[in-house]
């Protein structure tokens, strides 16, 4: 969708869409508007999860988030159009939603925000999107691992 919008916007403005510079710019902007924004959302979710795990300690949560964002492969995959970060953000969102629900139920605020069932639904939706966006599911090695009987490695 991002490339479609960029392509037609440039055609509307009279740009040569076959020009190497515009094609390179479109590829970069497509990556920014897809994986880049989703990865930024993943950092926000990671920070909120770290705040919950650290009992609302901002400095420790920021340090953990910077370590996650810049000290792992998360940054590398946020700059190219791969699905790994989309899957990671789906998993982070699922864990965060479940953590928030646990926190609300534990504090007696379960009736606020949105009902109990919705958070489980959205956590399942996020986890399902992570599973379907992972290229490991399409791997030919998956069938081999399943036939050998290694279910932990197959679904890890």
Strand residue percentage: under 5%
Low-confidence stretches: 143-156
Total of helices: 8
Cα-based radius of gyration, to the nearest Å: 20 Å
The shape is: elongated
The total beta strand count reads 0
Q: What average pLDDT do the residues reach?
A: 79
Summarize the amount of helix as a percent range. over 70%
Question: Structural class of the secondary elements?
Answer: mainly alpha
SSE string, helices as H and strands as E: HHHHHHHH
| Biggest sheet features | none
Distance between the termini: 31 Å
Describe this structure in words.
With 156 residues, the protein is mostly helical. The protein has 8 helices and no strands. It has helices at residues 2-12, 20-53, 58-71, 73-78, 84-107, 116-132, 140-148, 151-155. Helix 2 runs antiparallel to helix 3 (58-71) and helix 2 (20-53) runs parallel beside helix 5 (84-107). The longest helix is centred in the first third of the chain and has 34 residues, at 20-53. The two termini are 31 Å apart. The relative contact order is 0.09. Residues 143-156 have low confidence and may be disordered.
């Amino acid at each position: 969708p991002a490339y479609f919008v960029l392509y037609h916007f440039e055609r509307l403005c009279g740009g040569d869409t076959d020009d190497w510079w515009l094609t390179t710019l479109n590829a970069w902007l497509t990556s920014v508007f897809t994986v880049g924004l989703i990865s930024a959302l993943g950092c926000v979710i990671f920070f909120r999860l770290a705040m919950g795990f650290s009992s609302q300690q901002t400095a420790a949560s920021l340090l953990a988030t910077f370590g996650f964002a810049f000290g792992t492969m998360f940054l590398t995959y946020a700059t190219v159009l791969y699905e790994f970060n989309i899957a990671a953000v789906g998993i982070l969102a699922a864990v965060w939603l479940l953590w928030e629900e646990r926190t609300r139920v534990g504090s007696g605020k379960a009736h606020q925000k949105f009902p109990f069932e919705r958070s489980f639904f959205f956590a399942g939706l996020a986890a399902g999107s992570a599973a379907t966006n992972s290229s490991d599911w399409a791997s030919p090695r998956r069938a081999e691992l399943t036939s050998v009987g290694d279910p932990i490695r197959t679904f890890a």
